[in-house]
Amino acid sequence: MTVITARSLPTTPPTESSESSESSGRPPLRLSLKPPGPRSGLLDGAWWPRTRDLARELPALTDLLDHRWGRITRVTVNPTHWPDVPRKAPVNGHVVKVGWYLAEQDPHQLLLLSYRVGRWDLLVVPPETGPESAAWLMAAACDPRTARTGSALMADELDRHPAAPAAAVPASRAPAEEWEAEGGAVIAPVGPAGGG
Questions:
Q1: Are 122 and 44 in contact, with CB atoms under 8 Å apart?
Q2: CB 124 within 8 A of CB 150
Q3: 50 is a domain residue
Q4: Which of 14, 29, 32, 45 has its CA nearest to residue 122?
Q5: Residue 53: how many CA atoms within 13 Å on its side-chain side?
Q6: Residue ranges making up the domain that contains 115
Q7: Is 188 contained in some domain?
Q8: Cβ neighbours for 140, distance < 8 A, ≥ 6 positions apart
Q9: Residue 195, domain member (yes or no)
Q10: In the list 28, 49, 83, 179, which could disulfide-bond 184, CB 3.0-4.6 Å?
Q11: What pTM, to 2 d.p., does this model score?
Q12: What are the contacts of 165-170 at 24+ separation with CB within 8 A?
């Protein structure tokens, strides 16, 4: 397992680091990737973003992976756990297209595509996950013997720690929130005509 916690590629535990990433002032990425070699399992690694702000989080991730996997051209997510999914993300000299699939994509996974090399699936560890749980999830996603989806690994982690707070796996959005996130408008009810 390769664990990346900064823009350079050191091997360190997937935990919080007080160092900032280069001169940008951003904290280092929390990313674990399977070692190079034949593809095995359903996941290629895990990413532990710091927030649910996809527009803020994606540029650093795709910039780092551009150097490792070739230019990332497209990212897809399931919008269940992302309050806003941008259509594009600017990344160090190019733009990455962002799409979402509600029914077809695991809500705990991120799909990255590159023209040169292909596709990768990453487990997305929820930002509010504690360090111990995140370390276990990141290691499990990188284990070549693991043939589990992101949601299955999240369920395994909840089984390991049943007393964990509900925030570890956020609930889906309410139908009105989903409609609004997809571009629909929620109109507040208006009182009866004529007042009174």
A1: yes
A2: yes
A3: yes
A4: 45
A5: 7
A6: 9-180
A7: no
A8: 146, 148, 153, 156
A9: no
A10: 179
A11: 0.71
A12: 167/126, 167/128, 168/126, 168/128, 168/129, 168/130, 168/133, 169/126, 170/81, 170/126, 170/128
pLDDT over 90 percentage in the chain: 48
85-140 confidence digits (pLDDT tens): 999 999 888 999 999 887 789 999 999 998 877 899 999 999 999 999 999 999 99
Number of domains in the chain: 1
Burial class (CB in 10 A: 0-12, 13-18, 19+), 62: buried
Helices (H), 143-193: 150-160, 175-181
- What single letter denotes the amino acid at residue 40? S
pLDDT in tens, 144-156: 888 899 999 999 9
Token pair, residue 154, equals: 């999240």
| High-pLDDT (> 70) share of the chain, % | 69
Residue matched to tokens 């292909």: 118
